[in-house]
């Protein structure tokens, strides 16, 4: 966006004189060849500060106009993975040449930061709805009930370092907005798949999954690892045998619970792989 020109002091003084003579904004603008909005801004400034010269500024004026700032804010809201260079190029095409630092400062002033995109499981709509229902059903459960819960999950750990990180522009509270996340899946090469469990009383067993997991393998993992972990941690679970004998139990079926707690546990484990 091209920088707007500033009127010289003589023109500004002339605008004020015509205003004192009783002329309206549009009439003054038409006579001097300026926009009525420009005339109005100068008169309002004169009424407030009793002067027409520019007030002292702290540092150089911003090279990005309010309209330009709105343009880049709209771009990063629609496409959070937009890069600095993309925004620099957009402004350059609009007539304003700025550096990446200027872009960064503008976004920071509007409350946005460049953050690593959160990696979240690639879930079907049914899984999302199940998680939401689980959260609503247990929203008011007392802390003592959560201490009886054994969480289990599967995760993929890269053998040769973590996957490349993508950055997004977002506000702090928007970290799990779908636009600001990277969906992940639990398969692929160069990695191992692990099943693990934990509770408020400690960690349970860790099991490496070989091959593609189906319902039968999942039930076997639960039978050989989940119940022994429950017993070892002395967690009292009513009817616990039903956890492993249900024929319809499928991997990923009960994708509910504290994703943040699970992610922290796996992150700690992944940090030890080297």
UniProtKB/TrEMBL annotation:
Residues 70-140 form the Transposase Tc1-like domain. GO terms for biological process: DNA integration; DNA transposition. InterPro entries: Homeodomain-like_sf (IPR009057), HTH_SB (IPR057667), RNaseH_sf (IPR036397), Transposase_5 (IPR052338), Transposase_Tc1-like (IPR002492), WH-like_DNA-bd_sf (IPR036388). Residues 1-52 form the Sleeping Beauty transposase HTH domain. GO terms for molecular function: DNA binding. SUPFAM superfamilies: Homeodomain-like (SSF46689). PANTHER family: SI:DKEY-77F5.3 (PTHR23022:SF135), TRANSPOSABLE ELEMENT-RELATED (PTHR23022). This is Uncharacterized protein.
């Amino acid at each position: 966006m091209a920088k707007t020109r500033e009127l010289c002091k003589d023109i500004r003084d002339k605008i004020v004189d015509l205003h004192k003579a009783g002329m309206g904004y549009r009439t003054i603008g038409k006579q001097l060849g300026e926009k009525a909005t420009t005339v109005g801004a100068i008169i309002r400034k004169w009424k407030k500060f009793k002067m027409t010269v520019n007030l002292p500024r702290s540092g150089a004026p911003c090279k990005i106009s309010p309209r330009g700032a709105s343009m880049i804010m709209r771009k990063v809201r629609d496409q959070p993975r937009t890069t600095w260079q993309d925004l620099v190029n957009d402004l350059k095409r609009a007539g304003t040449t700025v550096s990446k630092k200027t872009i960064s400062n503008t976004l920071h002033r509007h409350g946005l930061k460049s953050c690593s995109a959160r990696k979240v499981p690639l879930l079907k709509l049914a899984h999302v709805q199940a998680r939401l229902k689980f959260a609503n059903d247990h929203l008011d459960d007392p802390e003592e009930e959560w201490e009886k819960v054994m969480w289990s999950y599967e995760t993929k750990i890269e053998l040769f370092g973590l996957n490349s990180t993508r950055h997004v522009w977002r506000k702090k509270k928007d970290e799990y907005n779908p636009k600001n996340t990277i969906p992940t899946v639990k398969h692929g090469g160069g990695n191992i798949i692990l099943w693990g469990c934990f509770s408020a009383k400690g960690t349970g067993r860790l099991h490496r999954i070989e091959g593609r997991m189906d319902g039968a393998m999942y039930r076997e993992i639960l039978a050989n690892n989940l119940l022994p972990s429950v017993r070892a941690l002395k967690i009292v679970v009513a009817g616990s045998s039903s956890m492993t004998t249900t024929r319809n139990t499928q991997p990923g079926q009960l994708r509910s619970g504290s994703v943040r707690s699970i992610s922290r546990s796996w992150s700690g484990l992944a940090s030890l792989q080297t």
